[in-house]
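Extended Data, panel c. Modelled sequence:
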Amino acid sequence: MYDFLKGLSILEVSSFVASPTVGLYCGQFGAEVIRVDHKEGGLDYDRFMLADNGRSLAWENLNRTKKSVALDLRSGEGRELCVELASKIGQCVTNLPEKSFLSHAAMAKGREDMVSVRIMGWHDGRQAMDFTVNAAAGYPLMTGPADWDPATAPPVNQLMPAWDFLTGAYCAFTLLAALRHRDATGEGAEIRVPLGDVAIGTLANSGTMAEMLFRGGDRERLGNAIWGAFGSDMITRDGVRFMVAALTAKQWDGIVEAFGLADEIAALEAELGVRFAEGDTPRFQHRDRLLALFQAVASRHDYAELEKRMAAAGTTYERYRTPYEASKDPVLVDTNPLFGRTPDNPSGFDYPVARSFANMPDKPRGEPRRAPYLGEHTEEVLADTLGLSSGAIGKLVERGIAAPSDEGHDYSKTRIMP
């Protein structure tokens, strides 16, 4: 936790991954993030996987640092309260449709400097999610073994919802840019960020779109090789699979030294009439010949021995881990200052928790914060932000328009458990 955004309040009305990520990142830098959900939980409140008490571990981690307000968003009165909160706070992040009750026009009524960031599916209003925009952008059909038949090979989906997280980070940046503009001009802003545009736009920004059009066709599949450079997975004598990368002269020199292949590389250069130290192009073009040399060395050594040589030579490498292994790795997690713990998680499960990814050596990151219980801050926010009296809030709760904290509720009897 850093306090760079202390004093900034943000209303978040969202679900799933991209939109909650905006509030998570802003909250980690000190913003007060108030998430509003339907009183029974939003669409992602019971998202798999569930802890023993039926609470979602995904929801718990995407909503750390935030305050939770629970309203009856299916009622007109509950929706009016949500819009009023957005207008009062002055900045809102949501992935609700523009034509929903939470339109920019509704939030900006009487508030010309309102800033809203809306995450959409596609620019033309069609629905989308990470896996569907990934399919549209083409990446799954560039992934897979090199010997697969391009005409019949299946797509390979990315398990990590990269477009969701990239969109969330981009929207956090966009929100802060709009607030800076408002500070300078007094103008509000309505901003729409389609998830699909983030995917297809990244295809363009990376140069991949230009490459395909220049080629007049698709790139070949490369298996685990690095496109445009030398790098691939290898396997040692004792069956450990690892990845090496050599994109710079230093990295190339390191891997050649670690594998003791200077003479063999020189002979191959003489045969092919190239110099591999000159850059990525010759190393990529002759990657199969090079990989055969490196793999032959790896096959003669156990990983522990080869790792010492790679570390000593400054090689860029890493062995493959399963997610479970990574989660228990002492270097990646246990001794990494990125992580802390919040033993009072609503799930009742104690595990490592990520702080802000950004690290400022002269400032402590602070301890991570747990996620709220649904509705934990309903009464506080309605009182502090809207100025409602305890009596008025009590009546809203009695009538089911607002809901208090669900702490103590065990969902294990009502949700399908793992």
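The longest helix spans residues 162-185. This feature is highlighted in the accompanying rendering.
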